[in-house]
Design a protein that fits this description.
The N and C termini lie far apart (60 Å). The strands form 4 sheets. An 8-stranded mixed sheet has the order 4-3-5-6-7-8-9-10, sandwiched between helices. The protein has a 5-stranded mixed sheet with strand order 12-11-13-17-15, sandwiched between helices. The chain has 7 helices and 17 strands. The chain is α+β, with helices and mostly antiparallel strands and 338 residues long. The structure holds 1,6-di-O-phosphono-alpha-D-fructofuranose (AFP). The site of 1,6-di-O-phosphono-alpha-D-fructofuranose has 13 residues, from helix 5.
Length: 338
Amino acid sequence: MITLSQYLLEYERKNPEKAGIKLAIEDLAKGCIRIMDLVGRGPLIGIHGAAGETNVQGEDQQKLDILSNQVLLDMLAWSGNWAGLASEEMEHIYHIPAHYPKGKFLCAFDPLDGSGNIDLNMPIGTIFSVLPYEGGQEAPHNSDFLRPGRDQIAAGYVLYGSSTTFVLTLGEGVHSFTFDRSIGEFFRTEKNLKMPDSQNYSVNASNYRHWKAPVRQYVDECKAGKDGPRGKDYNMRWMGCMVADSHRVLAKGGMFMYPYDERNPNQTGKLRLLYECNPMSMIIEQAGGRSITDKENTLDVQPTDLHQRVPLMMGSKVEIDYLEALHKADKKTKKSTK
Ligand code: AFP
């Protein structure tokens, strides 16, 4: 079994043009080990509960949201591997302090996804997206982060569950590493993960009445199981943490979605494009799956805002192809009835 560092070293030897990525990913891994430690201590050190503040998206912040954000900022700022950082918890990008050198990468992250699960001892995670930066020692702007997900050179997440799992893609497959607490290192426990096709779906079904017709039809057909047009029984799970729900879909196959919701017509979706949808979509595509919004492949969306939200449907190819076909058919019907 090789360690995360050995894997990264081998990758850099094969891809000399990507030099520097090893140290950059190791920064993220070290930051996540610290977050894992805080998550594990939780109420013992008084860090459960609300912080009494809201983030830029108007969401209540938990104490651990703020702490995890600070851990990643501290870990990534000093190393000289990063040119700029963006986080779910900060309205604007974070500039690397002038007394530290700047590196070749930008990182957008959600430091603690699923924070509603923190106090319940349920799964939570960290998600990150790595983009190249060509501006040298010039400070980056918000616009440097507004690149389609296809431009990502690395993406990953860490799931703080019954064990701590680091899932990573550098664009050459998806690899999964498990943290060995007795040794203090991540070891690769799965290589070149490929998603199977399966009948799992993951969605917050309480929003059913607010969805568009094709999404409602898809879920109706899943619920109809063997007796419906899909001719097979489906199973459903929802943990309320994108990292955990997507991890299940990655491992077992099926489909995860957070679709457009008509309650809030000005908000195109719930999940954030740059640090939630793009990294997860790169992982899902690298594992043989697909990811779409209700209009295009998620990784092709041209971002317009750091905290932009999009509807997201991702998972096994067969399920996403079907959902896409339902959306196309709906569009056609609407056009012909105009
Ligand atoms: P929090 O980090 O604020 O708990 O949000 C988690 C999340 O963005 C994503 O991880 C989940 O898939 C989704 O929200 C859960 O949303 P519901 O509240 O609709 O279950």
